[in-house]
């Protein structure tokens, strides 16, 4: 198995945010807390740092770089075995043996792919980031995605394939597949599967019934939390949207199940995901990002001509706020809550000293 040589893993110069992460990765034992703090602030678009950091944040790599070759060999080997078990490799080889120039053959192959993998899955992948050549139909990245999603659905029949999963997978495939170090990018498909599996285990409760309220899905419970958060931080906007019956369930469900990847460009998504993946409370910060996103539209939403339809269109459209400003606003909202919680605890302690 090809792995990143130790001398390459240690060759990290230091400067700027991304290079701070490089410096942290140069240690014999990586300080995960410091790496999370640095990543939360955003990594530079360094195609050699982010892939390693994301692998760590999603459990593919541990804090001891000396263990990485062995750990990756096991994980990648497991994925290859799963592909073989489900017959994915055979179809992949057949498709390439036939070639892609003959339109009739391509049509026949697509028919088989639809039958095996499912029309919805294949069509969703084909619609993924059509603005990027990296995700060109029938290209390598698209084939990786189809296979990863198919194997995941087979391994997790309780979850299966749900619409929106392709949008969660795409940033992983992009980050791992564009790695400057070929020893890493050559294994982008297998590593994307491992990272995606971890991510979906965290997101799966969104698709299942909530333990807190069996009448609602996990996603619906998160949306209730968002509704309360908006009321807490902008009661006027909350009241205005409520008066028009523009409720969060009409526009924010997709935000949660795709971690906002549908709403932003790929580069913007990568910056947002640096923060979300590094969040020590894993996705708790997403509530604040969503709340800040709603508030960023305040002027347009409260325009006297903005009725139900106009407001919904605004909230379902591509955001106009910059990602940096959005994340700063989200952090400011969280800081307000932190101070409020601290003040509440202080008053409680004063009223009931130990």
UniProtKB/TrEMBL annotation:
SMART domains: TBC. InterPro entries: Rab-GAP-TBC_dom (IPR000195), Rab-GAP_TBC_sf (IPR035969). GO terms for biological process: intracellular protein transport. GO terms for molecular function: GTPase activator activity. Residues 44-280 form the Rab-GAP TBC domain. It comes from the Eukaryota. It holds the Pfam family RabGAP-TBC. PROSITE patterns: TBC_RABGAP. This is Rab-GAP TBC domain-containing protein.
């Amino acid at each position: 198995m090809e792995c990143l040589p130790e001398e390459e893993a240690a060759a990290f110069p230091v400067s700027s945010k991304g290079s701070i992460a490089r410096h942290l990765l140069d240690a014999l034992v990586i300080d995960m807390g410091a790496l999370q703090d640095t990543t939360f602030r955003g990594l530079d678009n360094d195609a050699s740092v982010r892939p390693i950091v994301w692998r760590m944040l999603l459990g593919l790599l541990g804090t001891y770089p000396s263990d990485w070759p062995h750990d990756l060999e096991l994980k990648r080997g497991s994925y290859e075995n799963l592909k073989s078990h489900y017959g994915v490799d055979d179809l992949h080889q057949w498709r390439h043996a036939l070639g892609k120039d003959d339109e009739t053959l391509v049509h026949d192959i697509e028919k088989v792919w639809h039958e095996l993998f499912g029309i919805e899955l294949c069509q969703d992948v084909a619609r993924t980031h059509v603005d990027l050549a990296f995700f060109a139909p029938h290209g390598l990245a698209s084939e990786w995605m189809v296979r990863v999603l198919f194997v995941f659905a087979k391994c997790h029949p309780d979850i299966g394939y749900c619409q929106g999963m392709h949008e969660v997978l795409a940033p992983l495939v992009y980050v791992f597949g564009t790695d400057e170090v070929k020893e890493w990018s050559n294994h982008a498909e297998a590593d994307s599967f491992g990272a995606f599996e971890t991510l979906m285990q965290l997101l799966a409760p969104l698709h299942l019934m909530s333990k807190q309220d069996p009448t609602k899905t996990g996603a619906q419970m998160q949306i209730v939390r968002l509704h309360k958060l908006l009321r807490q931080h902008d009661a006027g906007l909350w009241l205005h949207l409520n008066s028009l019956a523009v409720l969060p369930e009409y526009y924010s469900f997709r935000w949660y199940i795709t971690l906002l990847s549908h709403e932003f460009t790929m580069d913007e998504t990568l910056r947002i995901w640096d923060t979300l993946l590094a969040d020590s409370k894993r996705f708790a910060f997403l509530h604040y990002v969503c709340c800040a996103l709603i508030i960023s539209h305040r002027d347009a939403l409260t325009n006297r001509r903005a009725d139900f339809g106009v407001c919904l269109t605004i909230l379902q459209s591509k955001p106009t706020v910059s990602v940096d400003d959005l994340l700063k606003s989200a952090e400011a909202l969280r800081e307000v809550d932190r101070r409020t919680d601290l003040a509440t605890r202080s008053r409680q302690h004063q009223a009931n000293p130990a």
